Amino acid sequence: MQIIPSASTPVDGNCTSDQNTFSYVQTENGNSYNISFCLGNTTGTLTPGPKCLTPGGIVDVDCSGGGGGGPIGDSFSCPGDPVVQYDGGSYDSDGLSSTTGGYYRTVQIGTQCWLRENLKTTKYNDNTPILNLTDESDWANNTTGAYSCFNNSTANCDTYGALYNFYAVDFASNGGKNLCPSGWRVPSRTDWNNLYIFLGSDAQVGYKLKSSDDWDGNNSSGFSALPTGFRDFEGSFDSTNAYFWSASIMDASKAWFRVMQTGSPEFNETYDMFGYGFPIRCLED
Question: Rounded distance, CA 5 to CA 205, Å?
Fold first, then answer.
């Protein structure tokens, strides 16, 4: 790692010399880079503070190593594989348990640490049960937090994670409860966009996120997305695509999510009704 010569810190800034570094991170398809820098003043649309320059653009995060001056991979490493325990219960030989959570594998992408699997929990992280709805009319008429497995098959929850409506995600709807393990959260639109930028912000991002073993991507990111399907607001199951809720609301009845389609390398953003059932992929705080 090389150190970029530092200048004097601006009076109204809060930058350290450790935040002016760069490192090279090997990827499956060659070398990519991250250049960390820090702004003491607002510059254009960029606010003061540490930034990370990636091949896809500038991300509003500190990729210098958290003030320690180390390469991005040293100070921003995820816990391990598998590591994040959730819900308790019995675990199989891979450290996973059916629908109750168990252990989740993680993956570091840039400065973000993601669960490498979709959420399977049947409880909020305060141990409150989440309503499980299998009947179409019950799902359609419900306005509280709920989940189901695709086609009401627990085997699908084991493989693809559960499908949660947005009422289960939204703090205002669920009484401030968190679906993700302690120290983790449902990603916001900004979080998803930072991932998109880090991976190149182009039409190939979905290809980098999709599993290479069980779908049609190359998984160079390690995100390992699978074609989960969804449940619509009327209770029907459909699709062979992948969907991921964000925690961000579009209006009083709709929220933002990300989608990857079979046969397409793109990773798109759109929004839909709170009553839809999509998977959750948690991000470390």
Answer: 33
How far apart are the C-alpha atoms of 211 and 145, rounded to whole Å?
A: 29
Task: Please give the Cα distance from 247 to 266 (Å, whole number).
Answer: 21
Instruction: Give yes or no: residues 220 and 145 share one domain.
Output: yes
Do 256 and 138 share a structural domain?
yes
pLDDT digit string (tens) for 117-158?
999 889 898 889 999 999 999 999 999 999 999 999 999 998
Question: CA 195, 170, 285, 87 torsion: positive or negative?
Answer: negative
Burial class (CB in 10 A: 0-12, 13-18, 19+), 194: buried
Q: What's the CA gap between 92 and 135, in Å, rounded?
A: 29
Q: What type of residue sits at position 204?
A: Q
- This prediction has a pTM of 0.72
Q: How far apart are CA 240 and CA 281, in angstroms?
A: 17
Q: What angle do CA 158, 159, 161 make, to 5 degrees?
A: 70
